[in-house]
């Protein structure tokens, strides 16, 4: 059936949800005109060599997992085949082809999608790799699509930290797509899994990429878009994440970069959370109270360890010219002895220095 | 009195608000112990050579404006000297020293502060200059602090488009601070004004910079922080803008840049609006319905002008390999004639091309 029904077919997903996969298959091969009205599924089923697909899969160590199997990622069961009027359905897959030493089972709570533009900038590639590496270090699984640019950088970053990473493809797992990533896909299969809804032999198509993206969104508790132009296809995974109620995160970048414009637009107008590092991703996508990390704060300033009055003395010193103790006492309202004592304490902290013509601030590192 | 009371003194501002400036001055010089408890103001008043300050100001063409004067920026009258319990007051200035060919009167509704780090990156300097230039083109006035880095870039960008720009200093207007910006300050005075609460002769101090920033926030309908490290002093103007109920905007930048970390933090956790160009600044800071501009959209895609079914044919084509008309009809469910007609229309739009072994997509510019 996975060789017959196009990934993301709502009609098939709803039939499976209502009557089960076997009944759906029977409806297809028996030519049930109420279900397969134009007969397209029936005609495709006639042309499928099921035994051939299975032997090809076995040969390449590609296994098929479906709901109920030990390897099945149960997080996908939350994808809604039907929804109340007004909302959109996100057809769950009825099975997945899987290749690799890892397992997709148990994925979800601590998994995040890291996706973005194929035509990524060097900035985006660096950020995606660093983010994925840091997420792997924090124990998170990185899921992506093995495409050029951001996707590949995310997989590589996670593997650099020996973290598991999974790739979801829009074609059969016998096809390395893109071809230049054949070795990358082998490496991913060596530590995680490569996943597809499509059986061996099926080619990538634009509609299949879009359907594939709902699996990437569905397998994870959030999607991070590292770089995307306005209306870029790279945002399709984010759209699915929204429909699935998963967290959508975007990485900011230079406003001069078109490849960050889609990220900024989503932060501004579509409710995406701005994230700048792995801790913030975990904070947004993590289960509340379990993975939450504290908000970033600036480094402690040298001035922080002085009393408010001593800091005030410091703040009342001219920015660039020396000042005498009596001048400073006059303008600050503090007594001469207090100003002098404060200056000596501040000097001990390296904040001020005494010169021939008075006291001056030592420039702070900005 | 401006030579005696420190800028931002809440005590003085409240007394002026309640009893007027003249009564406040009398309380100071008569040694009213209920008002000037430690006698600091009185002692400073004794040391001030009022006539000398005024003649020095006249010599340098520095004028003093106060509420009620034609030149007074009435937007400052909305700064609250007193607030209900729990909220903080933002002491309004009781007068400003002004130098330059422009006037601060009428500033506010279409004025925006563009501020940020002194240790700006080349990215920040470029963005600040471009933003200010575009704001000037849209008829907006750019206010800043004439400091190194972002401030100077903002003034220069506005003046490059012959837009008015005003600088607010933390010292007397006889002092060029920073010294290297003496020429910049002259240029600003040639088209806008340079403003200070402090009379000629007063030196810049850290506390005066902080007080100065409330004037920058108060003169404008919003503050844009272009670059700021976490807890940077450059965020002080943003803090004042929040207290004044003005819009706070931040420009995103590379997550690898510490000078953008403060901006990202404010967008994430302090409710600042992310802005990436002048139109978005006008959108956020402009009066609703008057200056609002539309949200950005991606450029029209070549595919947009085809019918949904034709786009669907395109989307079902393999991403990298040619496909025959009959294959495509089979997998898409459309008839052979319809697929063929759609392909010819798509070819006319440059989206697909016919080859010896079938039809293939022409790569789209990303």
From TrEMBL, chains A, B:
It comes from Phytoactinopolyspora mesophila. This is DNA-protecting protein DprA. Transmembrane segments: none annotated. One of its GO terms (biological process) is DNA-mediated transformation. Residues 64-284 form the Smf/DprA SLOG domain. The lineage of its organism: Bacteria, Bacillati, Actinomycetota, Actinomycetes, Jiangellales. It holds the Pfam family DNA_processg_A. Belongs to the DprA/Smf family.
């Amino acid at each position: 059936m996975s060789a017959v029904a196009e990934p993301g077919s709502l009609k098939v997903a709803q039939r499976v949800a209502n009557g089960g996969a076997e009944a759906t298959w029977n409806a297809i091969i028996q030519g049930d005109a109420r279900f397969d009205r134009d007969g397209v599924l029936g005609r495709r089923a006639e042309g499928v060599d099921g035994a051939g697909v299975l032997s090809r899969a076995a040969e390449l160590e590609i296994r098929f997992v479906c709901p109920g199997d030990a390897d099945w990622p149960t997080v996908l069961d939350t994808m809604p085949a039907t929804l109340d009027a007004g909302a959109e359905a996100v057809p769950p897959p009825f099975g997945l082809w899987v290749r690799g030493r890892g397992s997709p089972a148990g994925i979800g709570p601590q998994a995040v999608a890291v996706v973005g533009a194929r035509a990524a900038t060097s900035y985006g590639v660096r950020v995606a790799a660093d983010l994925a590496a840091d997420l792997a270090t924090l124990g998170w699984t990185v899921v992506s699509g093995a495409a050029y640019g951001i996707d590949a950088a995310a997989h590589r970053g996670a593997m650099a930290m020996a973290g598991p990473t999974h790739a979801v493809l829009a074609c059969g797992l016998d096809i390395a797509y893109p071809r230049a990533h054949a070795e990358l896909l082998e490496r991913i299969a060596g530590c995680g899994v490569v996943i597809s809804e499509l059986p061996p032999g099926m080619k990538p198509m634009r509609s299949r990429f879009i359907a594939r993206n709902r699996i990437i969104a569905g397998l994870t508790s959030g999607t991070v878009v590292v770089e995307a132009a306005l209306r870029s296809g790279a945002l399709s995974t984010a759209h699915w994440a929204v429909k699935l109620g998963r967290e959508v995160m975007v990485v900011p970048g230079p406003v001069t970069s078109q490849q960050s414009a889609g990220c900024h637009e989503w932060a501004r107008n579509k409710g995406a959370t701005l994230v700048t590092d792995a801790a913030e991703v975990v904070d947004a996508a993590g289960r509340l109270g379990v993975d939450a990390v504290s908000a970033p704060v600036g480094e402690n300033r040298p001035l922080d360890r002085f009393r408010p009055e001593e800091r005030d003395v410091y703040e009342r010193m001219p920015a660039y010219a020396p000042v005498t103790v009596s001048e400073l006492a006059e303008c600050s309202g503090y007594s001469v002895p207090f100003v002098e004592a404060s200056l000596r304490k501040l000097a001990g902290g390296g904040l001020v220095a005494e010169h021939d013509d008075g006291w001056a601030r030592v420039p702070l590192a900005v």
